[in-house]
Amino acid sequence: MSGGEVAGILVAVFWAILVSFLAVALARLAQTLRATTKLVADVTDQAVPLLADASAAVRSAQTQIDRVDSIASDVQEVTSNASALSTTVASTFGGPLVKVAAFGYGVRRALGGARREDAPERAPQHTVIVGRTVPAARWSRRNGRENRENREKRGNRGKKD
Known about the structure:
Elements: H1 3-118, E1 126-129, E2 132-135, H2 136-154
């Protein structure tokens, strides 16, 4: 055999090996495409019922939202009615109740003032000034008598509590 014939045989062998590799690759590609087709079909079979369930859930949620909206509008109406009622009650009874309370306070204060004059005096208290204790009697001697005398002159109008 000559060199050209050997080269032709080598090219034919390499060509056969190349065609074999391409055939194997095409067979695997075909197998992958079949598996992908089956997977897509299975996903489609499962997705259709899921989409139907999701659609039903969305419709149910919309129905619930409509109910909540009607309830919220009713609550808003009740709130406005309660506010109007509260304003009416406050304007109707508020003034007279304040007057009754003021009258009661005045009567209590007038009756309570008579009792305080009869009550015994409290024990002297001590006041702390810059770290020392000073009896309250000194303070009352200076200021207490003057205040008491002034009150008696004015007819007990400025009496302290």
